[in-house]
Structures are given as structure tokens and as C-alpha cells.
Specification:
single chain, about 210 residues, mainly alpha, Recoverin, domain 1, two-stranded antiparallel ribbon, 6 strands, about 40% helix, about 10% strand, elongated, EF-hand-dom_pair, EF_hand_dom
Length: about 210
């Protein structure tokens, strides 16, 4: 895999890989929206940006996976069965079961939750931002067209079937125009990204401490 693709994946992972976990014992998140300013103060943010120790674009290997697991345990401190719940969360985050957690795992979770319309199956939320769009928009014209759009499809195919990835790209491209390209506005619209947001930690943030 060339360095450009790795850099793209790493940047997207570091910017997007944030999950939210309810800190009360035995509960799962049953939230139908992806707020930028969560009103529920019992929610904690797990920022995974420092867990990619070797900067390969993924949380992988024994050391990094254990660091992620410990990160979740710390966030769940004081709740019942926090160690078992943390193990389950880490396992479920590896969507394609390749023993590493990359950007595609997080975006796959987001897309599944978006499609399920409230019938959530994972105990956390993923908040995408525009970093992926910025990385793919190589000529900086504010549009993903031709090869750039194909690269978006390739990125999605890392964790999704080809037909699913293709339909998602087509759905994004057809929201606001008919020229086949994907504008920043369409990208934001599809992923529910606030127009002023540049990262998942912008605007008001939930408590990052071990307890709300």
C-alpha cells in the first residue's frame, strides 16, 4: 500500500475515530441523532488519536489494541463489569474482523447506524468530519470527481461490499446536483456533519474525564 493511501487513512482515523460510551452500568446508547453538543452528560468521549503508536493508520498489534481496551476501561471506571464491557466494545469495533481497527471500521459502524434508524446494535456512536473529503480532494476544487470519487469508493470497499460502497458514493453524489461529482456540501449532508465543524471535537465537547 503506498504512502499516500496510508496518510489518507491515518488522517481520517485520527480525526474521526471518536466513540461515545454511556458510563452508567449495563446500558447501551439508544440515540437516534449524532449531536455535536451531546446534552447527555453521562456520555464520555474516547479519543483514539494517540493510540496509533506506529502511525500506520490503524489501531493494531497487541500493544495498541491493549491500549485501546484500557482506554475504554478507564472511561467506564466505576460501572459494573467495566472490563468485560470494554473487551466487548473493542471486539465489536473491529467490524471486518481483521484484528485491527482502521478508519473503515468506524465509518462502517456509522453507516450501519445511519441505515438502522434507531435500531442500534453497538454501544457507541461515531462522529465523522470533513477530513476524509479534504484528503481525497487532491486538486482542492471543493469537488470529488472522476479519480477522486473512485478513491472514495476504494476507501469504502476496505470494509464494505463493492456494491454497497458503490451505492453509497452514488447516493452522496445525487443529493444536491446531477453532474456526478460530490461537493463538500453533499458530503456534509450525507454524514450529518455541521457546516462549521472541522473535527469531531469542535464546538462543545462532552466530559473527557473518567466520570461525568
Amino acid at each position: 500500500m503506498d504512502s499516500t493511501v496510508l496518510d489518507k487513512r491515518r488522517t481520517f482515523l485520527l480525526a474521526c475515530a471518536c466513540v461515545f460510551v454511556r458510563s452508567c452500568a449495563g446500558a447501551s446508547l439508544h440515540t437516534t441523532v449524532l449531536p455535536t453538543s451531546p446534552s447527555n452528560n453521562s456520555r464520555l468521549m474516547l479519543d483514539t488519536s494517540d493510540l496509533d503508536l506506529n502511525k500506520d493508520g490503524c489501531i493494531s498489534g497487541k500493544e495498541e489494541m491493549e491500549a485501546f481496551r484500557q482506554h475504554v476501561i478507564n472511561a467506564l471506571a466505576g460501572s459494573e463489569n467495566s472490563v468485560l464491557r470494554a473487551h466487548s466494545i473493542v471486539h465489536r469495533t473491529d467490524v471486518n474482523r481483521d484484528n485491527k481497527i482502521c478508519w473503515c471500521d468506524f465509518i462502517s459502524i456509522y453507516l450501519h447506524e445511519k441505515a438502522s434508524r434507531g435500531k442500534h446494535s453497538v454501544p457507541f456512536l461515531v462522529l465523522p468530519d470533513t477530513v476524509m473529503f479534504t484528503q481525497l480532494d487532491q486538486n482542492k476544487d471543493g469537488q470529488l470527481a472522476d479519480d477522486e470519487k473512485e478513491r472514495l469508493k476504494t476507501e469504502l470497499e476496505s470494509c464494505l461490499p463493492h456494491s454497497h460502497a458503490e451505492s453509497i458514493v452514488d447516493a452522496i453524489a445525487s443529493q444536491l446536483n446531477t453532474d456526478g461529482s460530490i461537493s463538500l456540501e453533499e458530503f456534509q449532508e450525507f454524514f450529518n456533519i455541521p457546516k462549521m465543524a472541522t473535527s469531531p471535537t469542535s464546538s462543545s465537547e462532552p466530559d473527557k474525564g473518567n466520570n461525568p
